Amino acid sequence: MNIEVNQAIRVINEDNDYNACVDSVLENEIAITLFDFREEIEPGNNIIIEVPGSNAAYLGQSMVLKVLFGNKNCSLVISKPQSFNRVQRRESTRVKMTNNIDYGGENLEKVYQGKILDISGKGLRLSSAIELRIDSILNLIFHLKNNSIDQKLAVKAKVVRHFKSISGFQYGLLFIDLEASEKEIIAKFVMSESVKKRALSSFLAHP
Asked: What is the pTM of this model?
Protein backbone atom coordinates (compact mmCIF):
# COMPACT_ATOMS: atom_id res chain seq x y z
CA MET A 1 0.00 0.00 0.00
CA ASN A 2 1.55 3.28 -1.15
CA ILE A 3 0.92 6.49 0.77
CA GLU A 4 1.41 9.67 -1.25
CA VAL A 5 1.79 13.38 -0.50
CA ASN A 6 -1.57 15.24 -0.45
CA GLN A 7 -3.46 11.96 -0.05
CA ALA A 8 -6.58 12.12 2.13
CA ILE A 9 -6.55 9.58 4.98
CA ARG A 10 -8.27 9.04 8.32
CA VAL A 11 -6.59 8.72 11.70
CA ILE A 12 -8.33 6.64 14.37
CA ASN A 13 -7.52 6.43 18.06
CA GLU A 14 -9.44 5.04 21.03
CA ASP A 15 -11.98 7.88 21.28
CA ASN A 16 -12.04 9.80 18.01
CA ASP A 17 -11.26 9.68 14.34
CA TYR A 18 -10.04 12.55 12.18
CA ASN A 19 -9.80 13.48 8.54
CA ALA A 20 -6.16 14.09 7.67
CA CYS A 21 -3.85 14.93 4.79
CA VAL A 22 -0.39 13.54 4.10
CA ASP A 23 2.24 16.30 4.05
CA SER A 24 5.39 14.27 3.39
CA VAL A 25 6.52 10.64 3.21
CA LEU A 26 9.97 9.46 4.22
CA GLU A 27 11.40 5.95 4.43
CA ASN A 28 10.16 5.27 7.98
CA GLU A 29 8.08 8.35 8.82
CA ILE A 30 5.00 10.18 7.56
CA ALA A 31 4.08 13.80 8.33
CA ILE A 32 0.34 14.48 8.39
CA THR A 33 -2.10 17.24 9.34
CA LEU A 34 -5.25 16.39 11.35
CA PHE A 35 -8.31 18.57 10.75
CA ASP A 36 -10.86 19.62 13.42
CA PHE A 37 -8.56 18.42 16.16
CA ARG A 38 -10.45 17.83 19.45
CA GLU A 39 -8.21 16.12 21.99
CA GLU A 40 -4.66 15.74 23.15
CA ILE A 41 -2.42 13.32 21.30
CA GLU A 42 1.02 12.61 22.67
CA PRO A 43 4.20 11.02 21.31
CA GLY A 44 4.04 7.29 21.95
CA ASN A 45 0.28 7.00 21.34
CA ASN A 46 -0.81 4.15 19.09
CA ILE A 47 -3.13 5.13 16.24
CA ILE A 48 -4.69 3.51 13.18
CA ILE A 49 -4.23 4.92 9.69
CA GLU A 50 -7.12 4.28 7.29
CA VAL A 51 -6.34 4.67 3.59
CA PRO A 52 -9.57 4.59 1.52
CA GLY A 53 -9.94 2.52 -1.64
CA SER A 54 -12.80 2.14 -4.11
CA ASN A 55 -14.22 -1.05 -2.59
CA ALA A 56 -12.24 -1.39 0.62
CA ALA A 57 -10.30 0.46 3.29
CA TYR A 58 -6.69 -0.34 4.20
CA LEU A 59 -5.72 -0.17 7.86
CA GLY A 60 -2.24 0.09 9.32
CA GLN A 61 -0.98 0.56 12.85
CA SER A 62 1.28 3.52 13.56
CA MET A 63 2.85 5.36 16.50
CA VAL A 64 2.93 9.11 17.08
CA LEU A 65 6.55 10.34 17.06
CA LYS A 66 6.15 14.15 17.18
CA VAL A 67 3.23 16.56 17.72
CA LEU A 68 2.79 20.21 16.72
CA PHE A 69 -0.47 21.88 17.77
CA GLY A 70 -2.28 24.65 15.90
CA ASN A 71 -5.56 26.50 16.54
CA LYS A 72 -7.84 23.89 14.96
CA ASN A 73 -5.40 21.56 13.25
CA CYS A 74 -2.62 19.36 14.55
CA SER A 75 0.49 18.23 12.68
CA LEU A 76 1.95 14.83 13.49
CA VAL A 77 5.01 12.87 12.53
CA ILE A 78 4.10 9.19 12.74
CA SER A 79 5.84 5.93 12.06
CA LYS A 80 5.16 4.38 8.66
CA PRO A 81 2.92 1.32 9.06
CA GLN A 82 4.80 -1.90 8.35
CA SER A 83 1.73 -3.55 6.83
CA PHE A 84 -1.91 -2.90 6.01
CA ASN A 85 -5.04 -5.00 6.46
CA ARG A 86 -7.78 -4.79 3.85
CA VAL A 87 -11.33 -4.26 5.17
CA GLN A 88 -14.00 -4.92 2.59
CA ARG A 89 -16.78 -2.39 2.00
CA ARG A 90 -19.90 -4.53 2.09
CA GLU A 91 -23.54 -3.51 2.08
CA SER A 92 -24.22 -6.37 4.51
CA THR A 93 -21.88 -4.96 7.17
CA ARG A 94 -24.14 -3.99 10.07
CA VAL A 95 -23.33 -1.73 13.02
CA LYS A 96 -25.26 -1.26 16.25
CA MET A 97 -26.66 2.12 17.23
CA THR A 98 -29.46 3.69 19.30
CA ASN A 99 -30.47 6.70 17.21
CA ASN A 100 -33.95 8.20 17.27
CA ILE A 101 -35.99 7.89 14.09
CA ASP A 102 -39.26 9.39 12.84
CA TYR A 103 -41.36 7.29 10.49
CA GLY A 104 -44.79 7.16 8.92
CA GLY A 105 -46.79 6.12 5.89
CA GLU A 106 -45.94 7.15 2.35
CA ASN A 107 -47.49 10.62 2.79
CA LEU A 108 -46.28 11.11 6.40
CA GLU A 109 -49.81 12.10 7.44
CA LYS A 110 -49.00 10.76 10.90
CA VAL A 111 -45.46 10.52 12.24
CA TYR A 112 -44.28 8.04 14.89
CA GLN A 113 -41.05 7.84 16.86
CA GLY A 114 -38.84 4.82 17.30
CA LYS A 115 -35.23 3.74 17.73
CA ILE A 116 -32.71 2.45 15.21
CA LEU A 117 -31.03 -0.61 16.73
CA ASP A 118 -28.61 -1.27 13.88
CA ILE A 119 -28.02 -0.20 10.30
CA SER A 120 -26.35 -1.47 7.12
CA GLY A 121 -26.15 -0.35 3.53
CA LYS A 122 -29.27 -2.40 2.79
CA GLY A 123 -31.54 -1.44 5.66
CA LEU A 124 -32.00 -1.05 9.39
CA ARG A 125 -33.61 -2.63 12.44
CA LEU A 126 -36.37 -0.52 13.99
CA SER A 127 -37.72 -0.70 17.56
CA SER A 128 -41.21 0.73 17.96
CA ALA A 129 -44.30 0.56 20.16
CA ILE A 130 -46.46 0.59 17.00
CA GLU A 131 -47.42 -2.64 15.22
CA LEU A 132 -46.74 -2.56 11.47
CA ARG A 133 -47.69 -4.94 8.68
CA ILE A 134 -45.18 -6.88 6.60
CA ASP A 135 -44.65 -5.21 3.19
CA SER A 136 -45.68 -1.80 4.54
CA ILE A 137 -43.84 1.10 2.86
CA LEU A 138 -42.50 3.69 5.31
CA ASN A 139 -40.95 7.11 5.03
CA LEU A 140 -38.02 7.39 7.44
CA ILE A 141 -36.32 10.50 8.80
CA PHE A 142 -33.15 10.02 10.84
CA HIS A 143 -29.78 11.59 11.53
CA LEU A 144 -26.40 9.89 11.08
CA LYS A 145 -23.59 11.57 12.96
CA ASN A 146 -20.03 10.62 13.84
CA ASN A 147 -16.63 12.16 13.15
CA SER A 148 -16.98 11.43 9.42
CA ILE A 149 -20.71 12.05 8.80
CA ASP A 150 -23.24 14.62 10.00
CA GLN A 151 -26.28 14.17 7.80
CA LYS A 152 -30.07 14.07 8.11
CA LEU A 153 -31.69 11.56 5.76
CA ALA A 154 -35.26 11.14 4.53
CA VAL A 155 -35.60 7.77 2.77
CA LYS A 156 -38.13 5.04 2.03
CA ALA A 157 -38.06 1.48 3.35
CA LYS A 158 -40.14 -1.68 3.25
CA VAL A 159 -41.01 -3.81 6.28
CA VAL A 160 -39.57 -7.27 5.55
CA ARG A 161 -39.31 -8.82 9.04
CA HIS A 162 -41.36 -8.47 12.20
CA PHE A 163 -41.15 -9.86 15.70
CA LYS A 164 -42.42 -8.89 19.16
CA SER A 165 -39.97 -7.82 21.84
CA ILE A 166 -40.29 -7.10 25.56
CA SER A 167 -40.59 -3.36 24.95
CA GLY A 168 -42.85 -3.53 21.89
CA PHE A 169 -42.00 -4.53 18.33
CA GLN A 170 -38.88 -4.83 16.21
CA TYR A 171 -38.81 -4.66 12.42
CA GLY A 172 -36.33 -5.42 9.70
CA LEU A 173 -36.57 -2.62 7.12
CA LEU A 174 -35.16 -2.77 3.60
CA PHE A 175 -34.21 0.55 1.99
CA ILE A 176 -35.88 1.18 -1.37
CA ASP A 177 -35.21 3.75 -4.12
CA LEU A 178 -32.11 5.18 -2.46
CA GLU A 179 -30.33 7.94 -4.34
CA ALA A 180 -26.64 7.36 -5.06
CA SER A 181 -25.72 10.14 -2.61
CA GLU A 182 -27.83 8.53 0.12
CA LYS A 183 -26.19 5.16 -0.47
CA GLU A 184 -22.77 6.79 -0.16
CA ILE A 185 -23.66 8.56 3.09
CA ILE A 186 -24.98 5.37 4.70
CA ALA A 187 -22.06 3.28 3.42
CA LYS A 188 -19.53 5.80 4.71
CA PHE A 189 -21.20 5.91 8.13
CA VAL A 190 -21.38 2.11 8.41
CA MET A 191 -17.81 1.73 7.21
CA SER A 192 -16.39 4.28 9.64
CA GLU A 193 -18.30 2.82 12.61
CA SER A 194 -17.32 -0.72 11.65
CA VAL A 195 -13.67 0.20 11.27
CA LYS A 196 -13.62 2.06 14.58
CA LYS A 197 -15.32 -0.68 16.60
CA ARG A 198 -13.73 -3.79 15.09
CA ALA A 199 -10.39 -2.88 13.61
CA LEU A 200 -9.27 -0.47 16.32
CA SER A 201 -9.77 -2.98 19.11
CA SER A 202 -8.01 -5.67 17.09
CA PHE A 203 -5.00 -3.54 16.22
CA LEU A 204 -4.51 -1.94 19.62
CA ALA A 205 -4.93 -5.25 21.43
CA HIS A 206 -2.02 -6.69 19.44
CA PRO A 207 0.64 -3.97 19.06
From this structure: 0.59
